Amino acid sequence: MNGSARINLSSANVLVVDDNPQAIELLCGVLDGFGMRKFKRAVGVDEAKEACADAVFDLILTDAQMPGVDGYEFISWLRRSADEQARLTPAIIVTAHTRRSQVTKARDCGANFIIAKPITPKIILERIIWVAQSTRMFIETENYIGPDRRFRKAGPPAEFGVGRRKEDAETAAAAEAVAGNEPSSEVQETTA
């Protein structure tokens, strides 16, 4: 990320969803450090759905694994059932599990990104800025609603290529391989 670049996040309205109130506070603390001041905390998906009915958000951060309805199902609901404005809200899934199946599930439910725990402020800020600067179209088909998943050729903004965590690079390579954009032989070379 360019050290001289500035972005004002003080007016961003963010929904943070997790079944663990301490995890919500931790994430809100990180976001507060970026200058964000408007948070809606939702303990579980039911509260998140109510929040989406009552307010418009600029960003949604949700945990993946929650009892009952998980974060993947919440994003899928958001993309298919929420009102028109809420359906387009950028959504990032935060998870401790980034197996290929989890990355695929995040992609297929319509999430913009999946971030591996443990989280770091740098990675969260990079993903927020990436979403804000994204020019990916929003796709609506019979089987998928969400951001265009075909962004391999564009890749991440150039300023994010240096210093990425190894796990993030592996997760991105796995997602691309699952999407059929990259032969599995290349993924092995990328992640070795």
Secondary-structure topology with pairs:
Layout: E1 13-18, H1 21-33, E2 38-43, H2 45-54, E3 59-63, H3 71-81, H4 84-87, E4 91-95, H5 100-109, E5 113-116, H6 121-133, E6 138-140, E7 145-147, H7 166-178, H8 184-191
Parallel strand pairs: 1-2, 1-3, 3-4, 4-5
Antiparallel strand pairs: 6-7
What attributes does this structure have?
192 residues; alpha/beta; Rossmann fold; 5-stranded parallel beta sheet; two-stranded antiparallel ribbon; 7 strands; globular; disordered C terminus
Could you give a short description of this structure?
The protein is of the alpha/beta class.
Folded structure, characterized:
- This protein is globular.
- The longest helix has 13 residues.
- The chain contains eight helices and seven strands, in the order βαβαβααβαβαββαα.
- The two termini are 25 Å apart.
- Strand 6 and strand 7 form a beta hairpin.
- A five-stranded parallel β-sheet has the order 2-1-3-4-5, with helices on both faces.
- It has 192 residues and is an alpha/beta fold.
- It has a single domain, classed as 3-Layer(aba) Sandwich (Rossmann fold), CATH 3.40.50.2300.
- InterPro entries: Bact_response_regulator (IPR050595), CheY-like_superfamily (IPR011006), Sig_transdc_resp-reg_receiver (IPR001789).
- This is Two-component system response regulator.
- Pfam families: Response_reg (PF00072).
- It comes from Phenylobacterium parvum.
- Keywords: Phosphoprotein.
